[in-house]
Design brief:
Blueprint lengths: L1 E7 L4 H12 L4 E8 L5 H9 L3 E3 L8 H15 L3 E4 L8 H6 L4 E5 L14 H9 L4 E8 L9 E8 L6 H28 L1
Parallel strand pairs: 1-2, 1-4, 2-3, 4-5
Antiparallel strand pairs: 5-6, 6-7
The structure holds 5-O-phosphono-beta-D-ribofuranosylamine.
5-O-phosphono-beta-D-ribofuranosylamine (GRF) binds next to helix 1, strand 5 and helix 6.
């Protein structure tokens, strides 16, 4: 079975979609660990319920860059993932980790990249910008993670019509539904590709 480590900073609904897909067999893999950027997030509760181990990267808000790479490296060496799935992870992944896991770190972003990506485009801001620009379509993108925010190779996208959404919150929740299908399916395809 392939091994997935998830990195998260929030409620973890994409993490849940990945867990559900491993349960149903859509994704023939196990989530073997969660790295939470901070304490108290929903993603930690979800893995606890599933009996999956987790680590908190910065429990007291005083993490140095050296310590960050050392901690991440140690946990990843222990969990030995085939892929790392960022799911609402709001920290930049250090260069040392990206180099070591090149081609194996995936992210999901709630827009049709390269539009509405890069530093500052996260959460509701993305959808506010899509509406302000008068876009007809939006959606989500799964891409490989490089050292530049949201710039790695695009692996898959799912598209919807912005109408009938009239506000950013509504658009966000419609895009999130798409994410929950696209992310597990794309992780499955990527794992197959890595094995071939
Ligand atoms: C999603 O919209 C994802 O595209 C973005 O962060 C959000 C995470 O939501 N990277 P959740 O924590 O998975 O519910």
């Amino acid at each position: 079975m392939s091994r997935i480590v998830v990195f998260a900073s929030g409620s973890g609904s994409n993490l849940q979609a990945i867990l559900d897909a491993t349960d149903s067999g859509v994704l023939k893999a196990n989530v073997v660990g969660l790295i939470a950027s901070r304490p108290g997030i929903g993603a930690l509760e979800r893995v606890a319920r599933a009996g999956i181990p987790s680590q908190i990267l910065d429990p007291d808000g005083i993490l140095t860059p050296g310590k960050e790479v050392e901690r991440l490296g140690r946990w990843l060496d222990e969990w030995k993932p085939d892929v790392i799935a960022l799911a609402g992870y709001l920290r930049k992944v250090p260069a040392g980790i990206i180099d070591r896991w090149q081609g194996r770190i995936l992210n999901i972003h709630p827009s049709l990249l390269p539009k509405f990506g890069g530093k500052g485009f996260y959460g509701l801001r993305v959808h506010e910008a899509v509406l302000a620009a008068g876009e007809q379509t939006s959606g989500c993108t799964v891409h490989l993670v490089t050292q530049e925010y949201d710039e790695g190779a695009i692996l898959a996208q799912a598209v919807l019509d912005v109408a009938p959404s009239t506000n950013a919150r509504d658009l966000a929740s419609r895009v999130l539904q798409l994410e929950h299908n696209l992310y597990p399916a794309t992780i499955a395809t990527h794992l197959e590709r890595l094995k071939a």
